[in-house]
Design brief:
The chain has 4 helices and 15 strands. The protein is mainly β. It has one domain: Acetoacetate decarboxylase-like, CATH 2.40.400.10. Strands 1, 2, 3, 4, 5, 6, 7, 8, 9, 10, 13 and 14 form a 12-stranded mixed β-sheet that branches. Strands 11-12-15 form a 3-stranded antiparallel β-sheet. It is globular and about 55 Å long. The protein starts with 8 loop residues before the first helix and ends in a 14-residue tail after the last helix.
Length: 281
Protein backbone atom coordinates (compact mmCIF):
# COMPACT_ATOMS: atom_id res chain seq x y z
CA UNK A 1 0.00 0.00 0.00
CA UNK A 2 1.38 3.39 -0.99
CA UNK A 3 1.58 6.39 1.33
CA UNK A 4 -0.94 9.23 1.10
CA UNK A 5 -0.50 12.94 1.69
CA UNK A 6 -3.09 12.50 4.44
CA UNK A 7 -2.26 10.14 7.33
CA UNK A 8 -5.29 8.69 9.16
CA UNK A 9 -5.48 9.78 12.80
CA UNK A 10 -5.67 6.21 14.13
CA UNK A 11 -2.34 5.45 12.44
CA UNK A 12 -0.76 8.74 13.47
CA UNK A 13 -1.51 8.03 17.15
CA UNK A 14 0.79 5.03 16.89
CA UNK A 15 3.84 7.06 15.80
CA UNK A 16 6.84 5.82 17.84
CA UNK A 17 4.47 4.44 20.48
CA UNK A 18 6.36 1.95 22.63
CA UNK A 19 9.45 2.50 20.50
CA UNK A 20 11.98 -0.25 21.09
CA UNK A 21 15.29 -1.34 19.60
CA UNK A 22 14.84 -5.11 19.88
CA UNK A 23 17.28 -7.95 19.25
CA UNK A 24 20.44 -5.86 19.39
CA UNK A 25 23.45 -8.00 18.49
CA UNK A 26 26.91 -6.63 19.13
CA UNK A 27 29.03 -5.07 21.83
CA UNK A 28 29.32 -2.60 24.65
CA UNK A 29 32.71 -1.46 25.92
CA UNK A 30 33.86 0.53 28.94
CA UNK A 31 37.06 2.52 29.42
CA UNK A 32 38.69 5.39 31.27
CA UNK A 33 39.12 8.61 29.29
CA UNK A 34 41.82 11.22 29.53
CA UNK A 35 40.52 13.53 32.31
CA UNK A 36 41.50 16.86 30.72
CA UNK A 37 40.11 15.97 27.30
CA UNK A 38 36.89 14.61 28.82
CA UNK A 39 36.36 17.78 30.85
CA UNK A 40 36.86 19.94 27.74
CA UNK A 41 34.27 17.91 25.80
CA UNK A 42 31.46 18.23 28.34
CA UNK A 43 29.08 21.21 28.00
CA UNK A 44 28.18 23.08 31.21
CA UNK A 45 26.34 22.64 33.48
CA UNK A 46 26.97 18.90 33.03
CA UNK A 47 29.79 17.48 35.13
CA UNK A 48 31.81 14.28 34.91
CA UNK A 49 30.78 11.68 37.46
CA UNK A 50 34.41 10.88 38.24
CA UNK A 51 36.63 13.77 37.07
CA UNK A 52 39.87 11.96 37.96
CA UNK A 53 38.92 8.81 36.02
CA UNK A 54 36.04 9.62 33.63
CA UNK A 55 34.11 6.58 32.43
CA UNK A 56 33.98 6.30 28.64
CA UNK A 57 31.28 4.11 27.09
CA UNK A 58 30.69 2.81 23.59
CA UNK A 59 28.46 0.37 21.74
CA UNK A 60 28.22 -1.04 18.21
CA UNK A 61 25.23 -3.22 17.32
CA UNK A 62 23.02 -4.60 14.60
CA UNK A 63 19.47 -3.65 15.66
CA UNK A 64 17.72 -6.57 14.02
CA UNK A 65 14.11 -5.93 15.13
CA UNK A 66 13.35 -2.23 15.75
CA UNK A 67 9.63 -1.53 16.20
CA UNK A 68 9.62 1.55 13.93
CA UNK A 69 11.92 0.76 10.99
CA UNK A 70 13.65 -2.02 9.05
CA UNK A 71 16.83 -3.36 10.64
CA UNK A 72 19.79 -1.02 10.92
CA UNK A 73 23.28 -0.77 12.39
CA UNK A 74 24.11 1.75 15.11
CA UNK A 75 26.97 2.74 17.35
CA UNK A 76 27.95 5.57 19.63
CA UNK A 77 30.46 6.81 22.19
CA UNK A 78 30.07 9.01 25.23
CA UNK A 79 31.00 9.99 28.76
CA UNK A 80 29.21 9.23 32.01
CA UNK A 81 28.02 12.55 33.42
CA UNK A 82 25.54 14.14 35.79
CA UNK A 83 23.27 17.13 36.14
CA UNK A 84 22.81 17.69 39.86
CA UNK A 85 21.86 14.28 41.25
CA UNK A 86 20.71 12.90 37.89
CA UNK A 87 23.30 10.73 36.16
CA UNK A 88 23.41 9.48 32.58
CA UNK A 89 25.45 9.09 29.43
CA UNK A 90 26.41 12.20 27.48
CA UNK A 91 26.82 11.06 23.88
CA UNK A 92 29.71 12.58 21.95
CA UNK A 93 28.24 11.13 18.77
CA UNK A 94 26.28 8.30 17.17
CA UNK A 95 26.38 6.83 13.66
CA UNK A 96 23.82 4.71 11.79
CA UNK A 97 23.80 2.66 8.59
CA UNK A 98 21.53 0.14 6.89
CA UNK A 99 17.93 0.07 5.59
CA UNK A 100 16.33 1.58 8.71
CA UNK A 101 19.07 4.09 9.47
CA UNK A 102 17.27 7.15 8.10
CA UNK A 103 14.17 6.60 10.24
CA UNK A 104 16.30 5.66 13.25
CA UNK A 105 18.35 8.83 12.90
CA UNK A 106 15.46 11.22 12.22
CA UNK A 107 13.22 9.88 14.99
CA UNK A 108 16.07 9.94 17.51
CA UNK A 109 17.26 13.45 16.61
CA UNK A 110 13.85 15.09 16.29
CA UNK A 111 12.16 13.25 19.12
CA UNK A 112 14.93 13.13 21.71
CA UNK A 113 17.89 15.24 20.64
CA UNK A 114 20.28 12.33 20.09
CA UNK A 115 23.41 13.46 18.15
CA UNK A 116 22.90 11.04 15.25
CA UNK A 117 24.45 10.99 11.78
CA UNK A 118 24.46 8.56 8.87
CA UNK A 119 27.66 6.73 7.89
CA UNK A 120 28.60 4.41 5.05
CA UNK A 121 29.66 1.37 7.06
CA UNK A 122 29.18 -0.29 10.43
CA UNK A 123 30.63 -3.76 10.88
CA UNK A 124 29.72 -6.38 13.52
CA UNK A 125 31.47 -9.72 13.03
CA UNK A 126 32.11 -12.73 15.24
CA UNK A 127 33.89 -16.04 14.80
CA UNK A 128 34.32 -18.31 17.80
CA UNK A 129 35.91 -16.38 20.65
CA UNK A 130 37.07 -13.55 18.35
CA UNK A 131 35.05 -10.48 17.48
CA UNK A 132 35.46 -7.26 15.54
CA UNK A 133 33.27 -4.15 15.36
CA UNK A 134 33.91 -0.93 13.47
CA UNK A 135 32.24 2.34 12.44
CA UNK A 136 33.46 4.06 9.30
CA UNK A 137 32.39 7.44 7.95
CA UNK A 138 33.78 9.11 4.83
CA UNK A 139 36.57 6.55 4.68
CA UNK A 140 37.74 7.05 8.28
CA UNK A 141 37.36 4.28 10.91
CA UNK A 142 36.03 6.42 13.78
CA UNK A 143 36.10 3.51 16.22
CA UNK A 144 37.64 0.08 15.72
CA UNK A 145 37.24 -2.62 18.38
CA UNK A 146 38.84 -6.08 18.40
CA UNK A 147 37.60 -8.49 21.05
CA UNK A 148 38.65 -11.79 22.62
CA UNK A 149 35.88 -13.50 24.59
CA UNK A 150 36.36 -14.92 28.05
CA UNK A 151 37.55 -12.17 30.37
CA UNK A 152 37.69 -8.39 30.86
CA UNK A 153 40.80 -6.26 30.44
CA UNK A 154 40.57 -5.26 34.12
CA UNK A 155 40.08 -8.28 36.42
CA UNK A 156 38.22 -6.07 38.90
CA UNK A 157 35.64 -4.87 36.38
CA UNK A 158 32.08 -6.24 36.42
CA UNK A 159 28.61 -5.41 35.08
CA UNK A 160 25.02 -5.91 36.23
CA UNK A 161 24.03 -8.04 33.25
CA UNK A 162 26.47 -10.87 33.88
CA UNK A 163 24.75 -14.25 34.10
CA UNK A 164 21.70 -13.29 32.03
CA UNK A 165 20.07 -15.92 29.80
CA UNK A 166 17.14 -16.07 27.39
CA UNK A 167 15.06 -17.75 30.11
CA UNK A 168 16.31 -15.43 32.84
CA UNK A 169 17.04 -12.02 31.28
CA UNK A 170 18.40 -9.13 33.31
CA UNK A 171 17.02 -5.58 32.90
CA UNK A 172 19.35 -2.73 33.81
CA UNK A 173 18.48 0.91 34.32
CA UNK A 174 20.00 3.43 31.95
CA UNK A 175 19.59 6.95 30.71
CA UNK A 176 21.13 9.65 28.55
CA UNK A 177 21.57 13.37 29.14
CA UNK A 178 20.49 14.91 25.84
CA UNK A 179 20.10 18.39 24.40
CA UNK A 180 17.08 19.62 22.43
CA UNK A 181 16.75 22.99 20.73
CA UNK A 182 15.06 24.84 17.90
CA UNK A 183 16.60 26.47 14.85
CA UNK A 184 15.17 29.94 14.29
CA UNK A 185 15.96 32.85 12.01
CA UNK A 186 18.62 34.04 14.47
CA UNK A 187 20.23 30.61 14.92
CA UNK A 188 19.82 28.07 17.71
CA UNK A 189 17.35 28.82 20.50
CA UNK A 190 15.17 27.36 23.25
CA UNK A 191 17.75 24.79 24.33
CA UNK A 192 17.22 22.41 27.23
CA UNK A 193 18.62 19.21 28.73
CA UNK A 194 16.41 16.17 29.10
CA UNK A 195 16.82 12.77 30.68
CA UNK A 196 16.21 10.02 28.14
CA UNK A 197 15.07 7.16 30.39
CA UNK A 198 16.09 4.01 28.51
CA UNK A 199 16.46 0.61 30.26
CA UNK A 200 17.98 -2.42 28.53
CA UNK A 201 17.00 -6.07 28.85
CA UNK A 202 19.93 -8.46 28.31
CA UNK A 203 19.46 -12.04 27.07
CA UNK A 204 23.14 -12.91 26.75
CA UNK A 205 26.40 -11.32 27.83
CA UNK A 206 29.90 -12.68 27.23
CA UNK A 207 32.78 -10.86 28.94
CA UNK A 208 35.47 -9.81 26.50
CA UNK A 209 38.91 -8.28 26.45
CA UNK A 210 38.91 -5.38 24.01
CA UNK A 211 41.39 -3.32 22.07
CA UNK A 212 39.84 0.04 21.09
CA UNK A 213 41.17 2.54 18.54
CA UNK A 214 39.55 5.97 18.04
CA UNK A 215 40.09 8.31 15.09
CA UNK A 216 38.78 11.69 13.95
CA UNK A 217 37.66 12.85 10.54
CA UNK A 218 37.04 16.39 9.33
CA UNK A 219 33.44 16.10 10.48
CA UNK A 220 33.56 13.68 13.42
CA UNK A 221 36.10 14.35 16.20
CA UNK A 222 35.79 10.94 17.87
CA UNK A 223 39.51 10.83 18.61
CA UNK A 224 39.61 14.09 20.57
CA UNK A 225 38.84 12.31 23.85
CA UNK A 226 41.56 9.65 24.09
CA UNK A 227 41.10 6.43 26.03
CA UNK A 228 43.81 5.84 28.62
CA UNK A 229 42.67 2.39 29.80
CA UNK A 230 40.08 -0.13 28.61
CA UNK A 231 38.14 -1.77 31.45
CA UNK A 232 36.37 -4.43 29.42
CA UNK A 233 33.63 -5.23 26.95
CA UNK A 234 30.75 -7.61 26.43
CA UNK A 235 29.26 -9.40 23.44
CA UNK A 236 25.52 -9.23 23.90
CA UNK A 237 21.99 -9.76 22.69
CA UNK A 238 19.59 -7.20 24.16
CA UNK A 239 16.44 -5.09 23.83
CA UNK A 240 16.61 -1.36 24.49
CA UNK A 241 13.45 0.68 25.02
CA UNK A 242 12.38 4.19 25.94
CA UNK A 243 10.42 4.57 29.15
CA UNK A 244 10.14 8.34 29.15
CA UNK A 245 11.78 11.72 28.68
CA UNK A 246 12.03 14.33 31.44
CA UNK A 247 13.16 17.94 31.15
CA UNK A 248 15.99 18.73 33.57
CA UNK A 249 17.29 22.18 32.69
CA UNK A 250 16.37 25.15 30.50
CA UNK A 251 19.33 27.14 29.19
CA UNK A 252 19.12 30.94 29.41
CA UNK A 253 19.09 32.50 25.95
CA UNK A 254 22.62 33.86 26.29
CA UNK A 255 24.01 30.34 27.00
CA UNK A 256 22.49 28.63 23.96
CA UNK A 257 25.13 29.51 21.35
CA UNK A 258 28.12 28.85 23.68
CA UNK A 259 26.61 25.44 24.48
CA UNK A 260 26.03 24.71 20.78
CA UNK A 261 29.79 25.02 20.30
CA UNK A 262 30.07 21.70 22.18
CA UNK A 263 27.15 20.04 20.39
CA UNK A 264 27.58 21.09 16.77
CA UNK A 265 30.05 18.48 15.51
CA UNK A 266 27.92 15.59 16.76
CA UNK A 267 24.96 16.74 14.67
CA UNK A 268 26.24 18.60 11.60
CA UNK A 269 29.14 18.48 9.15
CA UNK A 270 31.62 21.25 8.43
CA UNK A 271 30.08 21.86 4.99
CA UNK A 272 27.20 23.64 6.73
CA UNK A 273 29.63 26.37 7.84
CA UNK A 274 31.00 27.28 4.40
CA UNK A 275 29.67 27.91 0.90
CA UNK A 276 32.77 26.46 -0.77
CA UNK A 277 32.41 22.67 -0.64
CA UNK A 278 32.31 19.89 -3.22
CA UNK A 279 32.86 16.14 -3.16
CA UNK A 280 32.65 13.83 -6.18
CA UNK A 281 33.32 10.07 -6.32
Amino acid sequence: MQASVFTPLDKLRGFMKDGSMNSQYGIQFFAIADPEAAARALPPPLKLINPEAPVYYGYIVNIREPTFAPWYMEGGVGLMARHGETTGLYFLGLQLSGPGALMGAFSGREGSGLPKKLCERILVEREGNWGHCMIQRKGVPLVNVTLRMGRYNDPGFSTEQEGCTRKNPITTEGGCLLHKYQIGTDGFENMHILLYDSPTTFYSWEPAEAEVTLCSSRDDPWGEVPITRVLGAGWMVSDNFVRGQHKLYQYPANETMPTMQYLFSGRYDQCTLTHDHQRYE
